[in-house]
Amino acid sequence: MHPTAPAAYIAALALAVAASWLLVSFVLRHAGRFGLWATPGERQSHDRTTPTGAGLGLVLALIITSVLLEHYLAIDPGWLLIVIPVIGALTVVGALDDRYSVSAVLRLLIQFAVSFALLGWLETHWLELDWWHWLIGATAVVWVMNVYNFMDGSHGMAGFQGVFAGLVLFALFARQGEPALALPALLLAGVCAGFLPLNFPVARIFMGDAGSVPLGFALAALIGLGFSQGALSLAAGLLVLSVFLVDSTLTLFKRVIGGERWYTAHKQHIYQRLIDHGWPHSRVLLLYQAINLVLVAPAIMLAGMYPELAWGMAGIVFLLLTTGWVAASLRLGMRK
Q1: Which of 231, 259, 273, 303 could form a Cys-Cys staple with 178, CB 3.0–4.6 A?
Q2: Radius of gyration of the chain, Cα coordinates, nearest whole angstrom
């Protein structure tokens, strides 16, 4: 790696943070003119009408910094030619959904289409995929997009997770000598960090579908690009998003088993139930990020140092998170 790389990375991170803060601030000032409001409802955990659509500024910052820095630093072609156009398109769809409510079927079709586009790039350049790889891979990418969207319901939750995931992926890729993958991960962390002062501790604006869905795709794409190029194990990639994956997946299973209309809006994720039981948003955020720092990050580090232990570490983490989810669900149920 070039000796000036650390300084270049710091400059890139600062640029991403500043660009995101400026563009999200612009969206905040003008959101009302375009009817971008999030009202308290069946899914939201806030108690007052708040501007939304911050994803427009956040994703635009990610696109601009990626394109600008491509002239000076190495960036993976898959990021520039697939991920950047896709997150731009998803942001437009998300903004329309934030404003007008786009059909769930249409959104799902678009999400599968962009997932197949990503897999097509990976197969063309890196992987040999059978039909079942396409099916499972596309479903997994779509699920990650929706998981990130589901978990964007509390002050700072999606933003801090983006910072954590981006920095962890940056460290993993840099350690493997993959600067072209490390830089996009760092930029993703930076734009999430730039958004946070406007979303935490008190949310002045929400990310909205314009931000959460594209971020979910970007993270899934980074994991896919890293895995396909041998820079990241699939187990480590799953661990990066494990806290979000467990809460969303088990909540979905619970609703399906309970015979509920699982496809409708709700507030049954553990983080939402904690807020409904009186926990402040900051305390909920602290819990989730403490789990990331104390449990998930060390497991990822060990998985990176000892690849033969990666799936074992992932299994232990997911088992512990599942146990914690069940215990919390039972306890919160008894306190109703």
Answers
A1: 231
A2: 19
- Global pTM? 0.95
Please report how many Cα atoms fall inside a 13 Å half-sphere around the Cα of residue 138, on the Cβ side.
20
Instruction: List the alpha helices (DSSP H) in 196-280.
Output: 209-228, 234-240, 242-257, 270-276
Closest to 69 (Cα-Cα) out of 1, 9, 20: 9
Report how far residue 110's alpha carbon sits from residue 198's, in angstroms, rounded to the nearest whole number. Answer: 29
Query: Which amino acid is present at 275?
Result: I
Contact 66, 190 (CB under 8 A): no
111 touches 145 (CB < 8 A): yes
Q: Give the rounded distance of the alpha carbon of 136 from its chain centre.
A: 19
Among 219, 143, 209, which Cα is nearest to 188's?
A: 219
**Preceding omega of 201 cis (within 30 degrees of 0):** yes
Taking the C-alpha atoms of residue 236 and residue 58, their distance in angstroms, rounded to an integer, is 26
Contacting residues for 71 by C-beta, under 8 A, at least 6 apart: none
Note the helical H segments in 70-178: 77-78, 84-100, 104-125, 131-150, 157-175
Position 98 scores a pLDDT of 92
- Six-digit token pair at 245? 């994956």
Number of C-beta neighbours around residue 257 at 10 A: 9
Higher pLDDT, 131 or 3: 131
Q: Exposed/middle/buried for 42, CB within 10 Å: 0-12, 13-18, 19+?
A: exposed
pLDDT tens per residue, range 76-89: 999 999 999 999 99
What φ, ψ does residue 195 adopt, rounded to 5°? -75, -30
Amino acid at residue number 157: M
How far is Cα 74 from Cα 192, in angstroms, rounded to an integer?
21
Q: Which two tokens stand for residue 204?
A: 């002045």
